[in-house]
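If you are new to this repository, start here. Below is one unmodified record pulled from the training split, so you can see the exact layout before writing a loader.
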Amino acid sequence: MAEIPKGDFWDERIERMGRDEIASLQLERLRWQVRRCFEGSPFYRERLEQAGVGPDGIRSLDDLQKIPPVTKQELREEQKEHPPFGRYTVAPPDSWGELHPSTGTTGIPVSTIWSRRDVENIADFTARTMWSFGVRPGDIVQNAFSYGLWVAGMSVHYATQKIGCFVIPIGATGTDRQIFYMDTLGSTVILSTPSFGLYIGEKLRESGVDPGGHKLRIGAFGGEGGTQNPATRKRIEKALGIDAYDYFGLGEIGPTFASESTAKSGLIWAEDHHIVEVLDPETKKPVPEGEVGILVITHLTREATPMLRYWTNDYARVESVLSSCGRTHLRSPGGILGRHDDLVIFRGAKFYPVQVEDVVRGFPELSNEFRIELRTDGATGLDRCVVVAESSSGGAHGAMGTALQEKLKNALLVTPEVEILAPGSFERTTFKAQRFVDNRETRT
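And here is the target side for that same chain:
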């Protein structure tokens, strides 16, 4: 087993590389990746030839922009036409290690394959992320990410072994069992979706357990947005008595490959393994540093199913300014700001569920749960936008509904209707919560 680092960095040489050194490494690895995709993947060879990029057509990082982004729908269609894995699997089958499809929450899952070398790389940069937010040898890690085909549970499991932790591979099982192991084994770290973390905290409160009465000190939360919102982070930290950190991963790219460090200065990207771009959603051109656009990510080291310019549909910004923790790789302050798929358009206004989340969770009188519903008014046929929230206690809440509506109006620049339900009305989840439902009647 490799020697465990003793300082603030998992791999200080990599994590504190100068920007020019990072660019040089990326160019070397990008040229390798494009060449092997051209030579080993009919899917990519067709795309590269159409773009006028040959096997040695990458001479600078700017040449990456010649390659058209690839979307999840294109991957689905490729797998449908060429089952089971499409023609973008580059590494030979005798090198394959694991199969991991996407979650399928937005359609048919897209299968990706990890080679055995891919597994090693994923375990290493996941260990890097966990080290950056304070996980150390001897920690007891309660891994409440789902195991099996969903990628995050497995990558964290491998990383805890590299770090030298004691892992509880509990997965996304019920809250009672989570609390039992938290209490009896003295877990010091917990990982889950933000929704599940809040649910566990809610159960702790209901059972009368003091959040400071257990040994948890760190939590990292991914799989959906939330932790980057100040109101949600505050709720998680208060409910569990921890420092909470944002985590990010994608089934098509890799799990748990970007996280906050203890500086909480934004997601830090593993630029030695990925090129991260931010593109204008209309022009598909890079936006200036610091501006918001769609994340597009390219694999530099992935062997089995590499992605060249994968269109994530996630909005973010990136900055190259040095983090206060000393890490030099690109950062995304505020984390993932929303998904293009989740854009709500109502009466000419455009907003995302994360904006509603930030408002709702600023009200201590409301629980953690909420939902945005688009409905059709039966009498007029007009669209209605309703933010449905849940009270954290009984009693009248007319004034609170009015205050919530006013806050939402200021944040969204449109006035939704507000409904406040009784405590416990929403079903809790161990996975990703559904925050937006379109129940409008289909018009013909």
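Two things worth knowing about this chain: The first helix runs from residue 12 to 15. The radius of gyration is 22 Å.
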